[in-house]
Amino acid sequence: MINFQHIFDKFNDLTVMVVGDVMVDAYLWGKVSRISPEAPVPILAGTQREHRLGGAANVALNLQALGARPALCSAIGNDREAEIFTKMLSANGLMQEGILADSTRITTTKTRVIAGTQHLLRIDEETTKPLHENLEKTFFARIERLIDSEKIDAIIFEDYDKGVITPNLISWVVTLANSRKIPTLVDPKKRNFLEYRNVTLFKPNFQELCVGLNENVDKKSYEAVFEAAKKINRQMNVRYAMVTLSERGVLVSDGEQYSAIPAELRNIADVSGAGDTVISVASLCLAAGMAISKVAAVANLAGGLVCEKVGVVPVNKKLLLDECVKKLA
After folding, report:
1. CATH architecture under which domain 4-327 falls
2. What residues in the chain have per-residue pLDDT under 50?
3. 148 a catalytic residue
């Protein structure tokens, strides 16, 4: 029997580096009571605006909410949204040593327009060009210094295809991490999908799996998903491939066998940020020494919990612990 209280207490002693694309999650809340006479669209009477840390920064918030110390590494612009972003970092007590400002970029901002609990529209302002070669080297040097100065227990690549993570950066960081015996975990997107060789855990969702491998996979068959996951294990030398399957739960493969964890029945309000939560929880469970099948089970519970909340929010540690004790112990 697993002592989940002991495992969750271990989280408080862990430092996890998060390398990836950060963003500002902006929200415009309001009410809709009529349709515009100018076009067949609803009129939102705005009542509230809010900014939250998004992307890789939301992963950092999830780690912090679970008691760990996140070391966030990313590049932002030199604009108004960058000021908003750095102020939120300070307000949340997150370290800024790994954040680089690049005046040639804009800070990624996703604005969600929400009426009550209904998500009406999202507006994305971003750049997706890769980091300039000189900045790429400067960024890696910053990461290397942090690894040298901090006791890093795991490294997460949080890739949103915005250009902060490049093939060179992946190779440099993974090589360094493996030489230090630091586990590496990946939340991938399409552009760099096949570049993540020699990592510890690779976590695509089902759509990313199909697009990344350029295959049509039968989602209803765990065996079919396992066959696709095995290709990641073997062709990319990945120790664990963990595929999130939304209503079908999670499947984790080591290349020889798999475990499938069905999804919990939930009142789903918003799936935004669920992947961030899953990779955060998986990194801490793995660093704490938990068996991979249990890592996947705990991460599955965590992803379900945050889907019950509107907007991108970090997981609640006590609620997650209670669910683990109740359903997995």
Report:
1. 3-Layer(aba) Sandwich (3.40)
2. 269-270
3. no
